[in-house]
Write a structure and sequence with these properties.
By secondary structure, the chain is an alpha+beta fold. It has 4 domains: 2-45, no CATH class; 62-160, Sandwich (Immunoglobulin-like), CATH 2.60.40.10; 188-478, von Willebrand factor, type A domain (Rossmann fold, 3-Layer(aba) Sandwich); 482-570, no CATH class. The chain is 18% helix and 30% strand. It has a 6-stranded mixed beta sheet with strand order 15-14-13-20-21-24, with helices on both faces. It has a 5-stranded mixed beta sheet with strand order 11-30-29-25-27, with no helix packed on it. A hairpin with a 2-residue loop joins strand 4 (88-93) and strand 5 (96-99). The longest helix has 22 residues, at 202-223. The chain is elongated.
Length: 579
């Protein structure tokens, strides 16, 4: 092709000489060995270019390599580091490709993206705000070579590197795979505070109220970035001999009432806690089981025994679950604060006429499993005058009861719902191999080698706030999950024509690098293998960027542990020969 181009130009020069007013003989021949430039055009037929120079510059068609370069501005260290790319100009000489970069001048159309020194391109240090990447055309002269360069800005290394694949249309992706390192710290927890509001709980309520803004919320924020709260309370069914039925006037007991659904508002949470106040209680065993069940499910319940009544059914808001709108991706944690034992379903059944058959231990455990929630008990034991804990607790009872039995019931609930941790979660703060779940974090012995998430408090309220904060902090560092990775699309993805694009189609496989459960805080790695792009064609003059998300979640429950963005670039069409 190059030879034909030169042949045609030489012929035109002959014609020009023949038509001139000079006396040259158009049929005379000039030997090719008098071709000083070696360009195949005899010196006698080359025009005078000035200063006695008659040689034409080489007339060649070059190709620029790479034809679709991607140059990265590195944001890893916080200070942008411009990226570089070496380009080559390649001329086909006969059947050989010859690098003529040293004879080629390289330029770009959009000089805001960088500049050339010789054949080395150095990017700018930044892109316009909100721009993921931008392309421009590279020119190589002489020879009319053309190529694309796309400049992007991202973190190219380290634990927080941005994950980026070039997926040209119908070509292999680059890189062929990458390994994503994820954190496994719990990112989102919904705490459902369930307070016993019978007559003996005044000081515990006061401790919760007084510590909410000063200790509980700050302590939980320090452990987990995104914490929301729900607030509910219970006494018992208003059916004698269990709860207060209004025989002497006044407010009847309630087996359960939701005061505030899950909210991230500190002021709304505080307002709900301010509504907690003590009521009469006819007996110490109370409706803990039913209260937990309703907070977990919102199913509702009705009874006809004695004073008939009901707990209204509650439908969760869209995108939430349970009886208090627990958020998707959250770890729901029910924190029950009480000083009493729990009335068993069989006790209610035997003690009344009419229908009063609330939910059992087994049914409540099932409700925890349904929304993959954890149980935390904060149990306040009665104290003897003169010191020490009092096991019998007939002070407020019309039937025999046992405060310590309430503690044991809480321990069983923790065990049956998997709300237990290894002693190592407490990092030896109260002694090696101990559970720091006693009053104010005192040491307790493990049960079956594990620490049930049941904390002790005093009847004067001491330890309530400590128990809540201690439990959530322990969960944040000591939980174990079966970790998996889930991919999802950014709905903002549009191609150059404005059509929606599902970026998850660029992902062929997600493979865990290690099998087995992961303890919270332990990094995990997944290999991402991209798929050949066969569905988004290259645009003529612009890059196309698409974003997918990879969420690492703890199972069961799909608890949010980490999220990483993965970017995909479809480069513009390669530049053809210049016209």
């Amino acid at each position: 092709m190059r030879r034909l181009l030169r042949f045609g130009l030489a012929s035109s020069l002959v014609a020009l000489v023949a038509c001139s007013s000079g006396g040259s003989n158009p049929t005379s021949e000039t030997p090719l060995d008098n071709d000083a430039s070696g360009d195949g055009i005899a010196d006698g037929f080359e025009p005078d270019l000035g200063n006695g120079e008659t040689n034409l510059p080489d007339l060649k068609q070059v190709t620029i390599q790479p034809p679709n370069a991607v140059v990265k501005i590195d944001l890893t260290a916080g200070v942008p580091v411009p990226g570089t790319q070496i380009f080559k100009a390649i001329e086909l000489q006969g059947d050989k490709e010859v690098d003529v970069s040293d004879k080629t001048t390289f330029t770009i159309d959009d000089t805001s993206l960088g500049s050339f020194t010789g054949n080395k391109f150095t990017s700018a240090s930044s892109l316009p705000p909100g721009v993921l990447g931008k392309s421009t055309i590279v020119h190589g002269q002489p020879g009319n070579g053309l190529a694309n360069v796309t400049v992007i800005a991202l973190r190219v290394s380290g634990d927080k590197k941005d994950f980026f694949f070039v997926v040209p249309y119908l070509k292999d992706p680059d890189p062929a795979k990458d390994i994503l390192k994820f954190g496994t710290n719990i990112k989102q927890v919904d705490v459902g505070v369930l307070m016993d509001t019978t007559a003996s709980m005044g000081e515990e309520i006061a401790n919760l109220r007084d510590s909410l803004s000063t200790k509980i919320i700050p302590g939980l924020k320090a452990a987990i970035p995104n914490v929301a709260y729900a607030v509910a309370h219970f006494e018992d069914f208003p059916v004698s001999p269990f709860g207060y039925s209004g025989a002497a006037g006044g407010t009847l007991n309630k087996p359960y009432e939701l005061l505030q659904a899950v909210t991230g508002s500190e002021s709304a949470t505080k307002s709900a806690v301010e509504l907690l106040q003590v009521y009469q209680g006819a007996a110490l065993p109370e409706s803990q089981y039913e209260a937990q069940y309703q907070l977990l499910t919102g199913e509702g319940f009705s009874w006809t025994a004695a004073v008939a009544g009901s707990i209204a059914k509650r439908t969760p808001k869209a995108g939430t679950s349970g009886g208090a709108d627990f958020r998707a991706g959250s770890l729901p944690v029910i924190v029950q604060i009480t000083d009493a034992s729990w009335f068993e379903k069989a006790t209610y059944d035997a003690g009344t006429t009419g229908k009063l058959s609330p939910h059992s231990h087994t049914e409540v455990v099932g409700a925890y499993d349904t929304i993959k929630a954890k149980f935390v008990g904060v149990h306040s034991l009665f104290e003897k005058s003169g010191g020490g804990m009092d096991t019998p607790c007939t002070n407020y009872a019309t039937v025999s009861c046992d405060s310590a039995r309430g503690y044991q019931q809480a321990v069983k609930m923790a065990q049956d719902t998997g709300s237990v941790l290894d002693p190592s979660a407490f990092k030896g703060a109260c002694g090696a191999g101990k559970c720091c779940t006693g009053v104010a974090g005192a040491a307790m012995d493990p049960v079956g080698g594990k620490c049930p998430l049941v904390y002790l408090a005093k009847s004067n309220g001491t330890g309530v706030a400590d128990g809540i904060v201690g439990a959530i902090q322990a969960i944040s560092v000591g939980s174990a999950f079966d970790v998996t990775a889930l991919k999802s699309n950014d709905p903002a993805n549009l191609d150059a024509l404005g059509n929606p694009v599902d970026a998850t189609k660029f992902i062929d496989k997600l493979r865990a690098m290690k099998e087995g459960d992961a303890t919270v805080g332990e990094p995990v790695c997944f290999e991402v293998i991209p798929k050949k792009n066969d569905f988004v064609e290259a645009a003529k003059d612009r890059p196309q960027f698409f974003k997918a998300f990879i969420d690492v979640v703890g199972m069961p429950g799909a608890v949010k542990l980490d999220r990483r963005d993965v970017l995909f670039l479809v480069p513009p069409k390669e530049q053809g020969p210049a016209k």
